[in-house]
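Worked example (supplementary).
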Amino acid sequence: MTYLQKSPWIVHYNASSCNGCDIEILAALTPVFDVERFGIINTGNPKHADILLCTGSVNEQNKVPLKNVYDQMPEPKVVVAIGICAATGGIFRECYNVSGGIDKIIPVDVWVPGCAARPESIIDGVVTALGILEQKRLKMLQKGNSDSTKVGEA
Amino acid sequence: MIPEPFVPVFYALVYILVAPLLGGLIAGIDRKVTARMQGRVGPPLLQPFYDVGKLFEKENAVVTATQNFYVLSYVVFMVVAGALFFSGGDMLLVIFAFTLSHIFLVLGAYASYSPYSHVGAERELLQIIAYEPMIILTAVGMYMVTKSFFVSTIMASAVPIILFLPGIFIGYLIVLTIKLRKSPFDLSTSHHAHQEIVKGVTTDFAGPNLGKIEIAHWYEYVFLLGVIWLFFAWNPFIAVAAILVAYFFEILIDNTISRVKWQLMLRSAWVIAGTLGLVNLGVLYYLRMVVP
Amino acid sequence: MQILDLLLCLILFPLIAALFLLVVRRDSWRSLIVQLSAVAIGIVSLMLLVLGFDKGTLLYTVGSEPVSQVMFFIEMILAVFIVCLGIKYRKSLSVVLILLQAGLLVWYETNMAGHISVGNNLFVDQFSIIMALIIGIIGTLICVYSVGYMETYHNRHKEIRDRRNIFFGLLFIFLAAMFGLVFSNNLLWVFFFWEITTICSFLLIGYSETEEATNNSFLALSMNLLGGVAFMVAIIYLAISDPSGNLMDLNYLLTTGKAVALVPAVLICFAGITKAALMPFSSWLVGAMVAPTPVSALLHSSTMVKAGVYIIVRFAPVLAGTTEGLIIALVGATTFAFASFMAISQSNAKKVLAYSTIANLGLIVACAGVGTYNLMWVAILLIIFHAIAKSLLFLCVGTVENRIGSRNIEDMGGLIVRMPKIAIMMFIGMAGMFLAPFGMVISKWAAIEAFITAPFGLIFIAILAFGGSATVFFWSKWMGKIISVMRDQTVIEDTVKKEKWAVLYILTGLVVVVCLIFPLISSVLIEPFVLNIYGQTARLAQANLTIMIMMLCLLMIMPFSMLFYGKGAQPPVPPYMGGRPMDDSMHFAGSMGVSRELVLSNYYLEKTFGEERLFMIGASLCWGLLLIAGIMLLGVIL
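After joint prediction of all chains, the assembly is encoded as:
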């Protein structure tokens, strides 16, 4: 296991969620669930975070900030879409201003179903994300190595 | 065993090598104890090391390349300050090097020209001016008791310094809260999960740069606790006990008192330095200089 | 008598240059004269250093009677001139003060001067040499810089009458007067040069002839004249207490018993306090910033205010251990703390510099007032370091002001991108003012170590600790402003003139080099001087010096780490804006679809560190202290 998997810091973005899933995310931080056991910290700053937890169906207002928050996270990073709205748009799918799902805006790695998603499943989703995070890190490392060999050749 | 002139160098090297390990461990214990106080299990003891290890695995995203320079200088001068302290150098010089290193952190935050970093930088500066007088008075107090600014002499002194400087010691503990970035004085940025205006002064540092800042904090921890040691230098057992109690006390304050505004921080830090610190020194001065 | 020739040369040569500059009106000629004389004066003051550093105190006899007559004559003319100007601008206070002072002088000349003759009118020792170097190098560098500056200044301000010949003439007369001041051993001569500096600064501050400039120049004049009156009273007191006139000999006065010297010392220190712009007289120096920037640079760094602290440091041995000395030191310390606090609330760059000057002068006076041997050593160190760093900062601010048309710190954001070289120089200058291991911090450190063994030192240490931390705050936030990186800015410093660059480079180099070689300066110049007076001297521990120099080297190496980071780095990311994207021109999408520019402003903490309130408190404290000193003095006299 690498350090990355032992210390996943999350940033939470609410893309027009009804606040149900968000409450559940925060519940995961409480003594009952205590995600800090796994080294998980809610940083509130994309530049420090490894995992973007995203809730809600994404509307016209917040798709730009969502993209921006994602872009500002340093590599490697993963996105966990939490709740049914984040997956498909949920009951808001038909609304005129709703994009319908996080993956319409940014690439999503893990979907956590539920309305609202339960803290246990959110934690499960984050743990699943750790595996993907590790794969991405290896990929980044390889890419970095090949880049540096290219530089060396040039 | 070691030739006399190299003893300070030896101590400095020990500090440079051991302090980050010790500092990280302290941070780990801190988080564990904090979690227990909040009724949680808390992260593994070595969590701070995992965090920093992870940060170095990440991409080094910077707003401006100069940030790298400022962060590096921050770490380097923090190490210099601590190494000077542990090699028995002049307390005042240590304090000035310490301030210098913090100024670099502040400049790194200013360099990014982001509103959150900016607020963090201003608040960090306010913290610096809040604690600096008290730290200088601490050094002056040490001088008045041992007649030397050199840490080596203060360490070697057989006098129980704490008995002469109780006011200074309490004042120091209070500014220590600022320095350890503990509530109620964690204005510029904070550890753990609680946030302050995004992440205050560290907002625009990512990956390895943030890791370096973390390491500098560990160096800082060891240095700051080393100052507590000086108060009890005549007896190492009591010194260790005092450090443990003092640190526990800091954690307790952190978890029981909510964050204050900068005005209150500045005022309380200065009022305490001005009353406890100065009164203590004044009495000492009177006893030493006037009575005999 | 080679050294005497050098002294006379330093006093008279700037005068001759000034005469030429008064008549020459062609730019190229003026520039040539200024540069040549600057080089000449610089070389002569260095020669003085080389020849005189190991000679101790040297006294010289120069034709006393005729020169004194000429001086008296000039002072009368100046008095008439000031009276005319005072009446023209309806400044009754200045008129009253100059009449009072002239009256005292005439009374002295008619009743006492007859049987007074001072044998040695000129003298030189290590302290004079240090002052001469500051005046001769930094002062002339500022003059060289002014040539380019004044050209731009008049292009920018067409409404101001172009009287550059008078301007440059005055600058050089000023330098001559400063040289005269630091070399004079006859107190009457000191007083004469003292008055010349007062009047030169008065004319220079009022150069632009706006209403504000005129008012501020008269403010400066009347405050300095008040000091002049005190000076004159001191001279008369000395003449009365010893009609033979031996006491007019500064060197003799300082080496004889304190009993006689104390009263004049306090009076002259009062004059020094007005000249050094300590509270409650600080307002004249703050007001003086209406003058063109080189004038401020000159007033703040190498001349004028340094004359004030020079004379106080001279009298430090007399003040040592006396209550009066302690009170003067307290005035200095109070000024240090309050001026540092007030600087926090200022956004005008020149005002911040002004308050910082006032604060540092306060610190020097605090050291001199307590007057133990190690504090004297610190005071001289402070004078040196402050002169260099402050002149650099003023000239940098002047250059920036000429380019961006503002002296507001808030407009200096991103200077590192717009004017990289100037920004780095400012950075070094500011580091010189408040960061270890540069000069001012070395001095502050030495001051703490010295105060701790001095009587009542604890009070001063406390003030130093609190005031010093305020210093950190206002410098750092300014520093942060200029180094914040804003993209999409163009470089605008190409148009700065070559000679200006040369001056700035030299001064920046001096900030660093003097810091590196200060142990040498200390052991060659300051320590022998202090040793000569007190029989013991101070210095920093060798181990500490080594560490300081290592730190300085480390600090100079650090920037090279940038090279290492430059290679193969990803393009920088934008700063965090709470999710709002921002483009390179610092604009982001605000609410209602409006594009807004990101503008960040520093903290000025008006409510806590507001200028008016703090000035009231500080000034009344200092008035109180001065009043006590005055009453004690009356007690001594009566």
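Two points are worth noting when inspecting this output. Chain C touches chain B through 60 residues (CB under 8 Å). Residues 68 and 538 of chain C are 39 Å apart (CA to CA).
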